[in-house]
Description:
By secondary structure, this protein is mainly alpha-helical. It contains 7 helices and no strands. The protein has one domain (12-235). Helix content is 77%, strand content 0%. The radius of gyration is 22 Å and the shape is globular. The protein starts with 11 loop residues before the first helix and ends with a helix.
Amino acid sequence: MLFEGTIFAITRINLTQMLATLALVLFLVLGTRRMKIVPGRFQSIAEMGLDFVRVNIAEDILGKKDGRRFLPILTTIFFMVLFMNITGVIPFLNIAGTSVIAVPMLLAIVAYVTFIYAGIKKSPGGFFKNALLPSGVPWPLYIIIVPLEFLSTFIIRPVTLTLRLLMNMVVGHLMLVLFFSATQFFVVGLGGWWTALGAGSLAFGLAFTLFEIFVAFLQAYVFAILTAVYIQLAVAEEH
């Protein structure tokens, strides 16, 4: 869209990501800048979202002490994924900011680094040992267990976090494109009695749009709660 052929080239999805980020910042600033004991509508919505992350993700998984400690990063992840996802159903944007691998990968790296930081902070000398060498296992089996634990804990977790979010949003986008393209083809391209099929594909497209709104929220919740679970595993007493 802008600066084509340069390192500063901006595509439609880059613009979507910028708008989602701007909308998120405005939402949080406007919702929290003038806090009142009796909140207005906008403050109530902001508080509801923040309390949802605090109660249902951070404190529910990590407890009050560690929940409050890691609440900023979990809140950032939840709202960033939610706002980037929801652009996929907004007219004239029509693509999720998380439907290219850069954003899910960045968030997965943040979650991964936070997980390792939490484990080392909790047990500087025993985190990697306990992660790779579970107790109570006969030592010859460590030849098999250590590579498997390394893959499971330090490779598969960030990869699955990335791909789960990416593929859900890409598939959702493709399904919406399919339904609404079919509607245009049947109604505008063919006309006549084919319009009835166009009405059917339009109905499916509208229904799937509502489902995509649910998926946008669900994927934000899943990403944040898995991050909290990984942190909880790192700060558990055995580490």
